[in-house]
Every structure is written in C-alpha cells, then in structure tokens.
Amino acid sequence: MGRVEKGESCGVSGCSEPAQRSISGSKASMASGLEVNTSNKRVYLCRQHYKEWKKATKEDRENERARWG
Ligand SMILES: [Zn+2]
Fold this sequence. Notes:
With about 70 residues, this protein is α+β, with helices and mostly antiparallel strands. It is built from 3 helices and 2 strands; from the N terminus they run βαβαα. It has a two-stranded antiparallel sheet. The site of zinc ion (ZN) has 8 residues, from α2.
C-alpha cells in the first residue's frame, strides 16, 4: 500500500518531482500548508512534499500510518 506507479508526478502545485507516495485527497487536505488538488481521489506526493505533509499532519500521522503497512 502507498506505492506509486512509475510516471506519476507530485500533485503539489508547481512541483514536478516524481511521486513517491499517494494519499487520499481527504488526508492531503489535512495539511493546510500544501497546495494540492484535493478534488482528486488520490494525491501523489514526491519525497519532499510527503515529508512536509507528514510534518503538517503530525498529530494524525500515528493513526494513519498503520494503514499503509
Ligand atoms: Zn512535490
């Protein structure tokens, strides 16, 4: 889970790095600092933005993490 197909690129506005992770749009919207298109079902994040997203959602992360196992 959480793996990203090759060819996907980061969904953050202005970023074209290859995606490392995909998260659901609702989860992505929990990070108010990230400009992603949360109308999509899945949001793809590059390594850097995934890190930022994790930081921004620190409190929720512990719970969500298990689902990615
Ligand atoms: Zn990015």
